[in-house]
Design goal:
This protein is an alpha+beta fold. It contains six helices and nine strands; from the N terminus they run αααααββββββαβββ. The strands form two sheets. The chain has a five-stranded antiparallel β-sheet with strand order 6-3-2-1-9, with no helix packed on it. Strands 5-4-7-8 form a four-stranded antiparallel β-sheet.
């Protein structure tokens, strides 16, 4: 396959996000995901697109006849009564089972659940007393969250894209930024987390709808910020 073909990368990214890319094909794509910024951008675009679809779709209740059919299949005609069908018998067994379960619960000491990991690095993007975005990251888990504080949508057919500035080499895309009070979280690949630990900071550029088509900033870089340890 020609993994330099943008259309092929976009198709594989969609299958990856939907979960239909499996086996060796998925393993090869995950290797590309760790190595190439354009592949990460394609995955981020599909995640953002499918996430926005789920937010606008309303649940559709099934027709009443569906539930009637389910009940007919799970409640067949009652067979002839037998000894073990006695209600009193099962009530006795139920009482014994309840006592046994209660005894087990009293004897069981649940293990301590460790607290959920919290962000250990933050970045504030925007000048003045009104920040535009708050970026928080937990470098131990690779979880990063971008929350729009005062950011509003860019021009028509334009989006904001977040970039990580490594110590050396070109900027690396960390996905599209939300606007209008929205928040987006995602898990970064291990390779990108390692680079983020040594990064010089973050940058925000204005890109076409869907993000940069090249894997590098194509529009103006409008904001920069440092990411600091808490």
């Amino acid at each position: 396959m020609n993994y330099r073909d943008p259309q092929l990368i976009d198709q594989l990214a969609g299958e990856y996000v939907l979960g239909t890319l499996t086996g060796s094909s998925r393993a090869r794509f995950e290797r590309l995901l760790r190595e190439r910024a354009d592949v990460r951008s394609a995955v981020w675009r599909w995640e953002s697109y499918l996430g926005s679809l789920s937010a606008v779709l309303e649940p559709i209740p099934p027709p009443p006849g569906v539930w009637a059919g389910v009940e007919r299949r799970i409640r067949p005609a009652a067979p002839p009564r037998r000894f073990w069908d006695s209600l009193g018998l099962w009530r006795s067994w139920s009482a014994l089972a309840s006592v046994a379960c209660l005894a087990l619960l009293l004897m069981y000491v649940p293990p301590a659940v460790p607290p959920a990991p919290e962000a250990d690095h933050v970045g504030v993007i925007g000048e003045g007393s009104e920040p535009l975005w708050l970026i928080s990251a937990n470098l131990a888990t690779g979880e990063i969250t971008a929350r729009a504080v005062n950011a509003v949508a860019a021009d028509v057919d334009k989006v904001f894209e977040l970039w990580m500035l490594p110590e050396s080499g070109p900027p690396m895309s960390m996905g599209l930024l939300p606007v209008s009070g929205a928040s987006v979280s995602r898990a970064l690949p291990a390779g990108l987390v390692a680079l983020l630990k040594q990064s010089r900071g973050l940058a925000v550029s204005i890109e076409p709808a869907g993000g940069s088509p090249t894997g590098l900033p194509t529009g103006p870089v409008v904001h920069t910020a440092r990411i600091v340890a808490l």
